[in-house]
Amino acid sequence: MNQKTFIIGHKNPDTDSICSAIGYARFKQLQGDSQTVAIRAGEINPQTEFVLNTWQTAAPPFLPSLIPNVGQAMTPDVVYRHPETSIKEILQLIEENNIRLIPIADEQKRYRGIVSLFDIAQEFYWSANPQKGRVIFTSVNHIHQALGGKILFAENRNETFSAILLIGAMQESSFIRILSNLEPQKCVVITGDREEIQKAAIGYKVKALVVTGNLPVSASICEMAQQRQVNLVNSPYDSAVTMNLIKLSAPAYRVAQKRDGHLTAETPLEQAKPKILEARNRGMVVLDSEEKLIGIITRADLLRYAKPRLILVDHNELSQAVEGSSQAEIMEIIDHHRLANPQTLQPILFLNQPVGSTCTIIAKLYFDHQVDLDKQTAGLLLSGIISDTLNLKSPTATSLDARIMEKLNTIAGINIEEYSNQMFGAGTNLADCHPEEVVLNDFKEYKTDKITFGVGQIEVVGFGGLEKIKPQLIEGLKKARQSRTYHFSALLVTDISASNSLLIFDGTQNLLHRIDYPLLEPHIAELKGVLSRKKQLLPHLLTIFKDAEP
Questions:
Q1: What is the DSSP letter of 268?
Q2: Mean per-residue pLDDT, 42-66
Q3: Is the confidence at residue 1, as pLDDT, over 50?
């Protein structure tokens, strides 16, 4: 089975993160890896939305979590049957499909129980009570379906009834003595061409008489059965086989069990494993919120389940990765940030270069490997570089970024200055943005030995719209810090036109005192000439928080 490999950037993705994921997925596909796809770990911000719309590209599918769940490991194409299906057909399905369990569900797939070989054997064969296997619940129609043969008379062939199986393989007097000690009207008698037994059974008005071996049944017996309203069936098999098949004519719902419970597709796999392993039937059904059957998961499914395969772009820290990444198999990392790489079980491709954008590295792969680069992909990669380097104004920008931008634009064919103004302008109307969206835009987590903190960044053209929402931004940072149990949270608001930034922040008192940028007012500092969170702000925060106590 071909397994997909997901290319994904960090949580709260920026334009570079999204465009590098799309660009690298296309690179891999062009090299023959059709199972590699781009996904995203967060919502698209306005700037990225502008870029995707400009280059007529759909956003990658949203994947909020990689924590393995039952839905990822289950078998969705379930072999199941209607509650009225005979046990005989259930056994045939088990044998033909080499499976152990058959779920039972109605026309709307509402779950009624599950049938296993163990359930069938326990119901009809494995019991300390020798009489238990003789009690059946069936109908004339079910008996006919199990046996084939002919229905010679049936008062109501679809009526279900409970009955005791009795083989008439003895003298008439012995048979009558046994039959009279039972409730004859609740007996199904199996016999061969013993007409005296046939007459006695009909005389006592048994529930049904089954004549075996395809032996002829006299007209007088047929007439007598009709007069006494006794169901009469002809079986092509001998008495022993007939008895077993009649047992198996019972509808599946009579045997179906719910004792092992059920799971939902959203149940974490680690939580489901003990239940599956302890289940008597070695598997469990998976139901939706309306208790409709959507899958089945067995011990074999647990063994077959493979960890998700990931390629990380624009980050190499699990704290910034999609939830559950620690349980995935990381295949490659392509990044331009500081090293905080996760452990891997085997060597992987790890490209980390001190450039301004991950899109620069990916575009260089296209050029180095002489892979055809279409206008759409070139435009996306160019947008990622413009965004992350602030159109080459950021101190993170390098000569390689500039050279790659120029080569990409020979394909994309845009006015970079006009385009970058439009792109940055798409995300700068702070007055129209919800404060929480502004705070969490491109928000990343960092750690020292004792301190955990988060920093977001947003680029604007002028600070004009900031004044009205400053209190809400401070409150949003406080909520973000408390909900994530951070010690400090901040938002870097960068004015592209003036090449300056403001730092809005909240934190514990001990950390607030360590902020040594010039304060314009409480919780707001001026950072002249600071444009880069990665190269200018983050190193400074890591330094002043290095030996700090929370």
A1: B
A2: 93
A3: no
- Hey, which CATH number is domain 87-254, 3.40.1390.20, 2.60.40.420, 3.30.360.10, 1.20.1560.10? 3.40.1390.20
CA separation for the pair 511, 545 (Å, rounded): 7
Residue 130 confidence (pLDDT)? 57
Tens-place pLDDT, residues 79-132 = 899 999 988 999 988 888 888 889 999 999 999 999 988 888 777 765 555 566
Kind plus residue range of the DSSP H or E element containing 138: strand 135-139
- Please state the pTM of the whole predicted model: 0.64
Structure tokens at 45: 């911000």
Superfamily of domain 5-67+308-425: inorganic pyrophosphatase (n-terminal core) (3.90.1640.10)
101-107, long-range: CB < 8 A, 24+ apart: 101/281, 101/282, 101/283, 101/296, 101/298, 102/252, 103/78, 103/285, 103/293, 103/296, 104/80, 104/252, 104/253, 104/256, 105/80, 105/81, 105/292, 105/293, 106/82, 107/82
Q: Of 176, 186, 234, 228, whose CA–CA distance to 210 is shortest?
A: 234
Evaluate whether 453 touches 490 at the Cβ level (below 8 Å).
yes
Mean pLDDT of all residues in 42-57: 94
Task: State how far the alpha carbon of 324 is from the alpha carbons of 41, 66, 308, 391, 501, in Å.
Answer: 11, 4, 10, 34, 34
Which range, of 223-227, 281-285, 460-464, averages the lowest pLDDT? Answer: 460-464
Backbone angles phi, psi at 377, to 5 degrees: -65, -40
What is d(CA 342, CA 340) in angstroms, rounded to the nearest whole number?
Answer: 7
Greater confidence (229 vs 133) lies with 229
Q: How many CB atoms neighbour CB 342 within 10 A? A: 16
User: What string of DSSP letters covers 39-54?
Assistant: EBSSPPPHHHHHHHHH
CATH number of 430-545: 3.10.310.20
296: helix, strand or coil: strand
Least confident of 64-78, 425-439, 525-539: 425-439
138 alpha carbon, distance to own chain's centre: 40
Domain boundaries, the chain: 5-67+308-425, 87-254, 430-545
CB atoms within 10 A of CB 343: 7
